Amino acid sequence: MQLSVLLSLLPLAAAFPLHLPQAIRALLPRDLSSSQQDDLIDGTECKAITVIFARGTDSPGNMGESTGPPFVEAIGALVGTDNIAVQGVEYGATILTFLEGGDKKGAALMASLTEQAMTQCPSTKVVMAGYSQGGQLVHIAAASLSATVSAEVSSVVIFGDPDDGDAVGSIPSSKVLIICHKLDFICDGSFIVDSEHLNYAEDAGDAAAFVVAAAGL
Fold this sequence. Notes:
five-stranded parallel beta sheet; 9 helices; hydrolase
């Protein structure tokens, strides 16, 4: 396809960013603020860091808005946006599955995506991350990973973790960052969502610094 033709498609591509051919996506400015990220399944070239992120209950896209995008934007600010790949986990994210302890199908998908990232890009540093119910998915997914795959996970970050205090599979605690605000009742095992559960964007910088340090970058 000629460059002139590709350029003519840019306005359309920007309006409909889901599952675009890689040749077109490569010409678009990198937008880590989007609530939909599909670098892994769209075949984006391997990056230094690959983040697999599970959003919270009833959040839009596969990344949500309040926590996932600020987190990956902060990583991009530290390592450069061309050095990070991001894949959101597509799952129902319903209140019912939250009350049941987390969406099991979503967790299975997260585990599969983690393994896929390592297979497609053996040198990438894989980060498992989630917010709220997404944190439940991280716990369940990590517990299902083999010892070999678990050892290759670079870091884990969970914001507003409903399972705060529980191990994250067999991943060493030194690779895990759990961020829970003091008055976030979800972290205490409650089902009450207050303002302290909704402002984890303010922790994006600290979380990003942890990820980059764990990756050795």
